[in-house]
Amino acid sequence: MAWEKLAEDKKARIAASIPQIWRLKSTPTEDSVMDYPEKSGIMTAEELAMTESSATDLVTKMAHGQLTSVAVTTAFCKRAALATQLTNCTLEFFPEMALARAKELDESFKNTGKVVGPLHGLPISLKDQFRVKGLETSMGYVSWLGKLDTENSVLVDLLFKAGAVFYVKTSVPQSLMVCETVNNVIGRTVNPRNKNWSCGGSSGGEGAMVGFRGGIIGIGTDIGGSIRVPSAFNFLYGLRPSHGRLPYAKMANSMEGQETVHSVCGPITHSVKDMRLFVTSVLAQEPWKYDSKVIPMPWRQSEADAIKTKLGSGGLTLGYYNCDGVVLPHPPILRGVETVVSTMKKAGHDVFQWTPYKHEYAVNLINGIYAGDGGTDIYNTLKESGEPAIPNFADLINPDLPKIDMNELWDVHLKKWAFQSEYLEQFRLAEETLGKEIDAIIAPITPTAAIRHNQFKYYGYASAINLLDFTSVVVPVTWADKSVDKKQEAYKALNDMDKTVQAEYDPEAYHGAPVAVQIVGRRLTEERIMAIAEEIGRLLGNEITP
Amino acid sequence: MAWEKLAEDKKARIAASIPQIWRLKSTPTEDSVMDYPEKSGIMTAEELAMTESSATDLVTKMAHGQLTSVAVTTAFCKRAALATQLTNCTLEFFPEMALARAKELDESFKNTGKVVGPLHGLPISLKDQFRVKGLETSMGYVSWLGKLDTENSVLVDLLFKAGAVFYVKTSVPQSLMVCETVNNVIGRTVNPRNKNWSCGGSSGGEGAMVGFRGGIIGIGTDIGGSIRVPSAFNFLYGLRPSHGRLPYAKMANSMEGQETVHSVCGPITHSVKDMRLFVTSVLAQEPWKYDSKVIPMPWRQSEADAIKTKLGSGGLTLGYYNCDGVVLPHPPILRGVETVVSTMKKAGHDVFQWTPYKHEYAVNLINGIYAGDGGTDIYNTLKESGEPAIPNFADLINPDLPKIDMNELWDVHLKKWAFQSEYLEQFRLAEETLGKEIDAIIAPITPTAAIRHNQFKYYGYASAINLLDFTSVVVPVTWADKSVDKKQEAYKALNDMDKTVQAEYDPEAYHGAPVAVQIVGRRLTEERIMAIAEEIGRLLGNEITP
User: Is-annotated flag, keyword RNA-binding (chains A, B) (predicted)?
Assistant: First the structure.
């Protein structure tokens, strides 16, 4: 069958998965669809309240019998149906399976008076890399359509054991190697706050879904910003844990087996509180007993407490940078970093300027790693169906591009290791000068606020952190504001990439777009960085006090 | 200069590094040189006692001012000088530098009344992969001779901070990829217990040195048995930690940058007590702040205590196997496993038969990984000087052998990951059946007792564990005994490799050779496996009670 036909068929199946009563009567014409759930008349006031609550509150209420999983799941299924129709963020929607599962959980609770686990009854949305037995994982590739999974990804299994309910799998860009979300199966996913903006990528479907509150905790993956960019573009929190903290086994992927820079999975949430609920719930399942790549490292409350202790005495020591030396962020992002810096200083924390160490070198190195097989893996997957490459990365999958040779790869490994260790030395040297430990670095995650379609060009703010395998939590900060974020007309670009990125800024077009920063810590510092991100969010006023 | 000349020059320099008064008057003719230190007249009774003590006792005495580092260092330098002359185990010997360092430490202690760290004053021997500023790291390659290191390996730096004294770097086989120790620079290192037996490899110089008590703690590396085999062949304890536990940065290596299976470093000691001293001392230096590959995981006393608790109540649950399904071990090894099994059963522990899972598949997979670049890296290093390949692996470095292609490598990564995760599943399934946690697996580490030269053929008992990245501690058990370890004449070999290995057994030739087992645990279980190894050693009567 022609690839276009297969894609049409899939789109029809997605549309058909939405019950008649949840379908839109008309397509809204506004740029933002954020107020649509209330306007639609499809959701009850209780359902709106549930979806605008927190995962932590919902599981608490379900554990006390104050809410049923069927009620909560129904609410999220409805809102996810709306998100699907309004932002085109969905590749698989299965409310019937979800409600059957919710009913089972409710019955179990009724019979035993006990929850099956810490996520009992909670709907969790999944990026379409996660395999759920009996469903499709197309990852937006036409050639993968119609193949039903015969087993669950390990994380799906463990979340299931913890009591989660699955109901939707969300869209990704073809190949996953792009920070926007567009593929030949369902086309483009848009930002629920403005259809002219990207929802980010590659976990862009999750970004749009959770941003719209069609999901309360979404799970994405990140090899070069793919959790953090959608979090930033949708005013959400996102965790890129270090490799080995959370299980990735039995997931679908592009360039599977590439291990020079690992893709990792992590949550996209509305609060650090919910992020912690997710991480502690997964770690309580001892994922290292299922996935050999997971480090046997349970949740370390002592690490989180170390930050709390500092908050109560003397304060944090935070580095920051607003430019990596390659591309200067747009004015809204510069203001975002400055807002966090001044907020933290005002609260008594020690904030100093961090000099990014060889980021350009790092970005070039990781770009070479992404292109390690000359695009062969992706090329072959496209060839199977005959679908074309999406324009965003078409130049990278020419089969005539050379592959890295084994000894060249080993050289890349050595360069990566040396760079990582040199970066650690930068920390040590700075700590010697400061006479104290550095708790985190505040940095841009993208050079732009939620970007206009097809304009995402510079991945370096995200990908340098992937090369370092540092832990990073995205914190939403503010919104682009044309009245203050003026274009710097006299700016002299650092290089061609910088020039391209600067040219994209238009105060009018970006007005109101979400602005975020990332909070970065050394490898495997999830507990600490989450605690710091929570405090920053609290001080900014966009995070509920724990 | 011809490679032979460079090698001669190096040998002359090693010989010259031994002070006249420590030189042998005559070459002993006996097979074993174990009693030579006492017979030589070179060492005092006090020096003999110090070298026959434990590292733990020595650091305690130095910390209480009951011994000086100069005295201890002198004793080990003398004994190392003897080991060098009797077993040919040394590539760098630098007693002057060591004694200057020891003097500094003694003065510091005298002035401050404090030790600089937990290893204050303790001599530690290093495999010749560790770089020490100002010295050579030839690793037995002629082409690397004469190049002085400009910086220390990270582990050397951290041990230095902990108070260690360095005095010797020991020999390795050319390329490191062999479990015996022979190179074109100094030739072959022999087993101090019998010059007809191998000292093992690739950390064979360490095995001979520590076995002879020219060292009390030696550090080796292991990518396919290279710590464990020399430990086994010299009646020593050896730890192969999981990757990421101890630092490897800035060390010399063959096939540097190959990361599909990581080489790791670890201690070779006379007791688990000394092993623990080493590991806790290194972890106390926070190696993860220096080497990006090290996991931020301090010493977990709670994990060691979990084993202690089990010893006090209910006992351990231990699997065992005496054959991996590929090669049946020689009779002394079968008896070694049986000795441990019956000892543990008698002590009330639950010991059950473990079925090795797809070990042949694992061994084939890892052999393909070792040969990933078709031997290019090693071939090029040999070509530089013109030295020939040692016979043990000459067939593996033909430059016409194909390299793995990038996409093939990714496929290997996936196979490795799947195999590792399937092995974890075997643990889970067995634990379900048993209704309790498995604490460790008892297994052979080699199919033979300390082997005759050039006869090491089958690496699978060691290398399957490397592929799994499991933690393993070698425990010395007993000695081959011609009166009980009879050749099984009627045995029908499983395959050609098995036939070759069986043919090698000769009760007479192996009489008295060290026999060991390895105690294996899941990834990053160092504290637990060390505690179990200690208990096994205690019950066997070859480990001092802590």
Answer: no
Alpha-carbon distance B206 to B212, whole Å? Answer: 10
Using the beta-carbon criterion (under 8 Å), do A257 and B420 form an inter-chain contact? no
For residue B34, which amino acid is it? M
Is the pLDDT score of B545 beyond 50?
A: no
Which of A297, A421, A432, A438 is best to mutate for the B interface (most B CBs within 10 A)?
A421
Burial class of residue B456 in the structure, from the number of CB atoms within 10 Å of its CB (0-12 exposed, 13-18 middle, 19+ buried): buried
Cβ–Cβ gap B413/A258 under 8 Å:
yes
Q: What angle do CA B376, B378, B382 make, to 5 degrees?
A: 115
A414·B257 Cβ contact <8 A? yes
Distance of CA A414 to the CA centre of its chain: 29
Inside any domain, residue A545: no
The answer to whether residue A429 sits within a structural domain is yes
Cβ–Cβ under 8 Å, residues A229 and A179: yes
Whole-number Å distance between alpha carbons of A22 and A86: 12
* Residue B135 assigned to a binding site: no
* pLDDT for res B544: 54
Is there a binding annotation on residue A283?
A: no
Strand A190-191 relative to strand A194-198, pairing = antiparallel
Interval A458-500: pLDDT, tens: 999 999 999 999 999 999 999 999 999 999 889 999 999 999 9
- Token output for B167: 């005095």
When pLDDT is cut at 50, 70 and 90, the band that residue B23 belongs to is: very high
Does any domain span residue A30? no
- A201 three-state secondary structure: coil
How many domains are there within chain A? 1
- Residue A272, in any domain of the structure: yes
What would the pLDDT profile of B136-160 be if each residue is shown by its tens digit? 999 999 999 999 999 999 999 999 9
Domain holding B468: CATH number? 3.90.1300.10
Q: How far is B407 from chain A (nearest CA, A)?
A: 7
Burial B358-375 (b: 16+ CB within 10 A, else e): bbbebbebbeebbbbbbb
